[in-house]
Amino acid sequence: MSEKPGSGRSGFDRRSFMAGAAGSALVPIVARAAAQDASVSAASDPALPVDVTLRVNGKDKRLHIDARTTVLDALREHLKLTGSKKGCDHGQCGACTVLIDDRRVVSCLTLALAAEGQEITTIEGLATDDHLHPMQQAFVDNDAFQCGYCTPGQIMSAVACVKEGHAGSGADIREYMSGNICRCAAYPNIVAAVKQAAPEIMKG
Fold first, then answer.
1. pLDDT at 150 over 70
2. Total Cβ atoms within 10 A of residue 162
3. What DSSP string runs through 19-71?
4. Residue 180: which of 167, 203, 161, 199 has the closest Cα?
5. How far apart, in whole angstroms, are the C-alpha atoms of residue 161 and residue 126?
6. Is 123 helix (H, G, I), strand (E, B) or coil?
7. What are phi and psi of 79, to 5 degrees?
């Protein structure tokens, strides 16, 4: 009986030979792909600094920052606007709330690059000259804070709450301010402050 080509008895395994040849051919292709991936990764390294212009409280601020920098860190660490507080750093407490194009935003979860070209308003930008913003004054009048740590975020959120039309009742205020936590539990006073400030804000 004649031997079949590629059988073990012939001393030559055709399948193994073809598999080995194909594997050898793939090595340079895989190596080139890996090198290209590494080069793309290095070129798009998020840790590399970038130029960004943020409009904060009506003024343009040019920054050279890590691309991963949040709005909160840009404000606090680079612009020295420390009114916005770093609470949980997970977007759950509301202490870092600022307004971006009049929308309330937790700045600890918002990249500075994403806010470029938009108007950022912080607690430092509410007062005009020597006059407190109506919401700031209402918080003072109603003793709507104790330790004060959450107060800047509470005030910014409260301003937006009113402008959104959610300050018509105590229940609405509590619902739409629920993202801002006050560990001192000054909630009744906060609601009273929002009620006081709402008519003047809507009038203005």
1. yes
2. 23
3. HHHHHHHHHHHHHHHHHHHHHHHHHT-TTSEEEEEEEETTEEEEEEEETT-BH
4. 161
5. 15
6. helix
7. -100, -5
Q: Are 179 and 124 contacting, i.e. CB atoms less than 8 angstroms apart?
A: no
- Which DSSP symbol is given to 146? S
- Residue 126 token pair: 């509410």
Q: Scan for tokens 């909160």, then name that residue.
A: 72
* Tens digits of residue pLDDT in 16-29: 545 555 555 444 44
CA angle 9, 10, 11 (to 5 degrees): 90
The answer to whether 197 and 158 have CB atoms below 8 angstroms apart is yes
Contact status, residue 201 vs residue 134, Cβ threshold 8 Å: yes
Residues 6+ apart with CB under 8 A from 187: 174
pLDDT grade for 84, boundaries at 50, 70 and 90: very high
Mark out the alpha helices in 105-203 (DSSP H runs): 134-141, 151-163, 170-176, 187-203
Q: Please identify which residue in the block is written with the tokens 């594997």.
A: 23
What are the beta bridge partners of residue 106? 97
- This model's pTM is above 0.90: no
Distance CA 121, CA 36 (A): 42
- The DSSP call for residue 148 is -
- The half-sphere exposure of 34 on its side-chain side, counting CA atoms within 13 A, is 6
